[in-house]
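User: Can you help me understand a structure? I only have the sequence.
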Amino acid sequence: MSSGQIWVDADACPNVIKEILFRAADREKVPVTLVANQHIQVPRSPFINTVQVPAGFDVADNHIVQLAEAGDMVITADIPLAAEVVENGCLALNPRGELYTTETIRQRLNMRDFMDTMRSSGVNTGGPPSLNLGDRQAFANQLDRFLARRARAL
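Assistant: Let's start by predicting it. Here is the structure, written out as tokens:
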């Protein structure tokens, strides 16, 4: 069983979410590893690490999939990455506080594929709305639940 560490698909993770994770890492002494294809500035902490992977399609995602273990949490808005880590026994949480589960990930993959089809046929689907206070609170609440379960398991 893993120690329940946190992996972050960091290239597109909002800074406000990273700040929540940094505070949680030090408060709960949970390892947080940010994986990105660019340098990421992080506070000095024995619990916060960065891994810079080469640029390329899905390189950071593949790194996370290879190293994350059952019981770990992966922070990502990338639906295919979330599907893969959930299948491997990890929890996946997006920056808006949506916890992906084996029950919900298939529907999210189908919606993603549908939207890709719409965009490729020329339909402007727009982007996601800005991260708001409710999203940040939902994220923090889900993170707290994970950390509480982790603390009970240790």
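Now, to help you interpret it: The first strand starts at residue 6 and ends at 9. The first helix runs from residue 15 to 28. Let me know which part you'd like to focus on.
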